[in-house]
Write a structure and sequence with these properties.
alpha/beta, 138 residues, Nucleotidyltransferase, domain 5, five-stranded mixed sheet, 31% helix, 3 helices
Length: 138
């Protein structure tokens, strides 16, 4: 039996006011208990250094190797007979620079041996800084 037939059904509602009150209390608690770092109170004297900019730029040796095995140093064609002879040509092109940077630009179809020849010649010449140039795909 249903004795509540004549009564209207009550709507269910959620009261948010107590929830908001609790959140405000939590926020006030967090504000009061949080410690903030105060970097302005630290007096730091950083060290100073005075150095002049390096006046000498490192010498760059640009070595090109094409697909047919021809070599060029700084745009000048140089025949490759032996690694020792090519090392002498590299020293001559560097003009007595202490430690030039050897930039090897090899064709994509150049043999590995031709690039190894340039690296061996650079080693014999006493040049340890070797880099390879590349280009992005078009």
């Amino acid at each position: 039996m249903n004795f509540r037939r004549g009564r209207a059904r009550e709507e269910i509602e959620i009261n948010l006011i107590p929830l908001i009150d609790i959140l405000i209390v939590i926020l006030i608690f967090l504000f009061l208990t949080t410690t903030y770092s105060r970097f302005a109170e630290l007096q730091i004297n950083l060290p100073e250094a005075s150095a002049a900019a390096s006046a000498d730029k490192p010498t760059m040796l640009s070595i090109a190797v094409d697909a047919t095995g021809k070599y060029a140093i700084n745009g000048v064609a140089v025949p490759f007979a032996t690694p020792q002879g090519f090392a002498a040509a590299m020293r001559e092109a560097a003009k007595n620079a202490k430690e030039p940077i050897v930039a090897i630009s090899a064709d994509a179809k150049a043999t590995h041996q031709s690039v190894i020849n340039v690296m061996e010649s650079a080693r014999l010449a006493g040049y340890n800084h070797i880099s390879f140039t590349t280009q992005t795909k078009r």
